[in-house]
Amino acid sequence: MENELNKKVLEELVKVFSDDIKNAEESFGMLSVTVNKNKIFAIVKFLKENSETNFNFLTDLTGIHYPENKEDLGVIYHLHNFFKNHRIRLKIFFTTQDSYVDSLVDLYSAANWMERETFDFFGIHFKGHPNLTRILNMEDMLIHPLRKEFPLEDQSRKDKNDAMFGR
Amino acid sequence: MSQLEKNNTDIIIPSQEKEYSILNLGPTHPATHGIFQNVLKMDGEIIIDAEPTIGYIHRAFEKLAERRPYNQITPITDRLNYCSSPINNIGWHLTVEKLIGAKIPKRVDYMRVILMELSRIADHIVCNAVIGVDTGALTGFVYLFQQREHIYEVFEEMCGARLTTNIGRIGGFEREWSNKVWEKIEKFVNNFPSALQEFENLLARNRIFMDRTINCGPISAERALNYGFTGPNLRAAGVDYDVRVMTPYSSYEDFEFTIPVGTQGDTYDRFMVRLEEMKQSISIIKQAIQKMPVDGGFHADIPDFYLPPKEDVYNNMEALIYHFKIVMGESTIPKGEVYFCVEGGNGELGFYLVSDGGRTPYRLHFRRPCFIYYQAYPEMIKGSFLSDAILTMSSMNVIAGELDA
Known about the structure:
In chain A, 22% of the residues lie in helices and 28% in strands. Chain A has helices at 4-17, 40-49, 111-122; strands at 21-27, 30-35, 57-65, 73-81, 86-94, 100-102, 125-127. In chain A, the strands form two sheets. In chain A, strands 1-2-5-4-3 form a five-stranded mixed beta sheet. With 405 residues, chain B is mostly helical. Chain B has helices spanning 3-7, 61-65, 74-78, 85-100, 106-135, 138-159, 179-203, 207-213, 221-226, 231-236, 243-246, 267-291, 310-315, 317-327, 369-373, 377-381, 386-396, 400-404; strands at residues 21-25, 37-43, 46-53, 336-343, 348-355, 363-367. A three-stranded antiparallel beta sheet of chain B has the order 1-2-3. A three-stranded antiparallel beta sheet of chain B has the order 4-5-6. In chain B, helix 5 packs antiparallel against helix 17. The mean pLDDT of chain B is 90. The chains are: A alpha/beta (167), B mainly alpha (405). Chain A binds chain B through residues 27-28, 30, 32, 56-60, 62, 64-65, 76, 78, 82, 85, 87, 89, 108-110, 112-114, 117, 121, 134-138, 145-146, 152-153, 166-167, and chain B through 54-55, 58, 60, 62-64, 66-67, 69, 98-99, 223, 225-228, 239, 241, 246-247, 329, 336-339, 341, 348, 350, 352, 354, 358-360, 363, 365, 367, 371-372, 374-376, 404-405.
C-alpha cells in the first residue's frame, strides 16, 4: 500500500475482520478490498461508525458478472469519507445460486434504489430491502439483462462475424 | 339499529377512517418537465405519500457500452444529462485517460474547464428559469433562455451540434477552436452577468417568489448525505462538497472560486446556490481565458487513441495504421478498473469502468446523481401541497435522461 490513508483503513479492517478479508489491492490509488459476502453489512457498518474510518457516504453500488469464475456474481461498493476525502472500494463475490446479500438500506437510504437497480440487472437479491422490485425495466421481464449470458445483439443473425467484431 | 335498517343497503354509513384519494401525476404531465410518474396519495390538497415510478426512457446504456469501443461510448454519455452534455463527454474522456495513463497538456485542461463551466451555466439556467416558470414567473425564463441560446451557439461553432454534442475526443479536442469560438465565448462572458443580474432582480428578493419557495421541499444536511445527494442540492442543504475542489480534475486546482452553500435545503436555497454557481462559473471561465497557455496544442500525444489528421492518413503509413486501429476499435487498452468522477450539473457524475483488455469495456457503470437523489423525493414532499411538489421536482433538477440511463 502506497497511500497512508489506505494503509490505515486496511489496518483497522484487519483488526476486526481478519478472517473475512480475501484480497486487498490498490488500483489507481484506490484501496479495493474483496471481503466475505456474509459479513458485508457488518463491515460497512464498522467502516461507517468507526471514528477512524468514518465512511459516511455511499457513492455507488453496482453489480458485475464474471461467467467464467466459480463465484460468478459480484457487488461493488464505493464508499467515501468526506472528512478525510478518502474513497475505498469493497467487493463481494458469490455464486448465482447463493445470490442473497444483506441490504445496506438501514445504513444508507441511498442504497435503496441502487440495490433495486442491481437486482433488476443482475438478479442479486438483497435481504432486508423494503421493496425489492424492478426499477428501470418492465416488471414482467423474465431475465436480468446485464448478465453476460444475454448478448446485446440478436444471436440468430447470421450476417455478422463475431470473430472479427468483438464479443 | 332496527332490522329494517340493517337490510336496507341504501343507507350510507360514513366511514370512521379517513379516505384518501389517489392521484396519478404523470407519466406525461406538462408540469413535470419530463417523463416521471408519481402515484400520489392525497388528503385534499396535502400529499400523504408518493410512489415514483421511473424507467420510462431507459435505453440500456450500460449494456450498449459493453459492445462499443471506447471512443464510440462518448455519444452515449451525451444522452445522460442532456442539459450539459459536454460535462458528460469530458468526464468519460477523463476516465479513459486515467485508465490509459495519458498525459494531457495544460492548454487542453483549460479548454475543457471553459467548456464544462459553460455547460454548467446552461444546465443551471434551465433549472433556475424553470423554477421561475413553476412559480408563475415566465418573464425570467424568456430572458435567461436567450443566454442559453448563446452558449449553444458556442457549442455549435465548436462541434456542429447543440444539444447532444459528442464533443472532444479521448486525449483532447477534435480540432482547434476557431477565432469565432473565442469571440463568442468572450461576448457571452461579457454579456451574461448583466442578464443574470436582471434575472436575479426579478426573482431573488421578490416577495411572491420567496413566499412560494422558502420552506418548500426542504431536506436536512444529514438526510441529504444519507440519501447520497451531491451537487447543488447537497450544497443547498449546507454541505460544501464539490468534486472540483475535493478531488480536482482537469486542472481545477489552478482556479480561484468559492462554493456557495445554503442552510435550509429548500427550493429557495437550491435556487440561490445555482444562481451563485453561475457567477462563479463565469469567474472561472474568465480566469481560464486569462491563464490560457499559448502552446500545448488541442490534444495529447496519444496516437493509439487520438485520430491522426486526414492528410497524414493518406500519406503516412504509421498514421494509416493508427487510423485503422482506432476506427476498428483495436487500440490496446490496459486491464484494470477505475472510478472517476466529475462535478456534473447535478452533482457527482461517476464512471466505474472495468477493463479486461478487450476492445470494449467489460463493465461500465454510470453513477448518475439524479438517479440517486430522486429517491428522496417522496420524503421531501410528504405533507406539502401538490403545487409545492411540482416546484420541488423542478428545483431538484431531475433530468429524465440521467435518471433512467
